[in-house]
């Protein structure tokens, strides 16, 4: 009887598992594609610098069969950082978890608003051991570039202060 039970369990797992795997595909739900405009290899410049001041490069790739994005940042001055970005269909929101060695950790969540990805949460500064409200906005442009605008909330002035304003330009393979 134990052999028959094991055989039934084995056959069920063999035939049922692929059916569930197909139904759980991240490519079938539109929310997983909402941040696709940021996927690519990028040269990053300060916004409005006419591409004259490159501050780094960034690679954004889809991972886990399209269920998440992995960001790998390399700053021109030697800084680095990574983030994992994923869509949670239960909450209908995107979330970014970012870390850079000894500098910052960012945890923000949100979604598309008027064509921009807007994520809100907190930034933790390792150096000062402080946490601040933080907002990131990614806006695709018609020329294929993406503006990444980060703001940190200032409790003293009750305003959002610019933290980083960058322009992502597709990396040219002609370099």
Structure characterization notes:
There is one protein chain. With 175 residues, this protein is mainly β. It has one helix at 2-23; strands at 40-46, 54-63, 68-75, 80-88, 93-99, 104-113, 116-125, 130-140, 146-154, 159-170. It has a single domain (31-170), classed as Calycin beta-barrel core domain (Lipocalin, Beta Barrel), CATH 2.40.128. It starts with a helix and ends in a 5-residue tail after the last strand. Strands 1-2-3-4-5-6-7-8-9-10 form a 10-stranded antiparallel beta barrel. It contains 1 helix and 10 strands; from the N terminus they run αββββββββββ. 13% of the residues lie in helices and 53% in strands. β4 (80-88) and β5 form a beta hairpin.
* The CATH H-level homologous superfamily: Calycin beta-barrel core domain
Q: Portion of residues in helices?
A: 10-25%
Largest sheet: 10 strands, antiparallel, barrel
The total of beta strands comes to 10
CATH level 1 class label: Mainly Beta
Quick synopsis:
This protein has 175 residues and is mostly beta strands.
Please describe the topology of this protein.
Layout: H1 2-23, E1 40-46, E2 54-63, E3 68-75, E4 80-88, E5 93-99, E6 104-113, E7 116-125, E8 130-140, E9 146-154, E10 159-170
Antiparallel strand pairs: 1-2, 1-10, 2-3, 3-4, 4-5, 5-6, 6-7, 7-8, 8-9, 9-10
Spell out the key features of this protein.
mainly beta, 175 residues, 10-stranded antiparallel barrel, 1 helix, Lipocalin
């Amino acid at each position: 009887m134990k052999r028959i039970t094991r055989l039934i369990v084995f056959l069920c797992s063999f035939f049922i598992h692929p059916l569930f795997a197909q139904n759980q595909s991240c490519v079938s739900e539109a929310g997983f594609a909402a941040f696709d405009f940021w996927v690519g290899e990028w040269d990053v410049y300060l916004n409005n610098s006419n591409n004259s001041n490159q501050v780094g490069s960034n690679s954004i790739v889809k991972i886990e069969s399209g269920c998440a994005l992995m960001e790998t940042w390399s700053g021109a001055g030697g800084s680095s950082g990574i983030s994992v970005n994923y869509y949670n269909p239960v909450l209908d929101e995107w979330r970014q978890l970012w870390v850079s060695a000894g500098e910052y950790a960012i945890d923000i969540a949100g979604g598309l608003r008027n064509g921009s990805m807007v994520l809100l949460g907190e930034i933790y500064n390792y150096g000062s051991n402080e946490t601040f409200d933080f907002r990131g906005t990614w806006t695709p442009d018609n020329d294929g570039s993406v503006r990444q605008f980060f703001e940190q909330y200032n409790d003293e002035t009750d305003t959002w202060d610019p933290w980083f304003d960058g322009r992502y330009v597709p990396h040219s393979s002609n370099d």
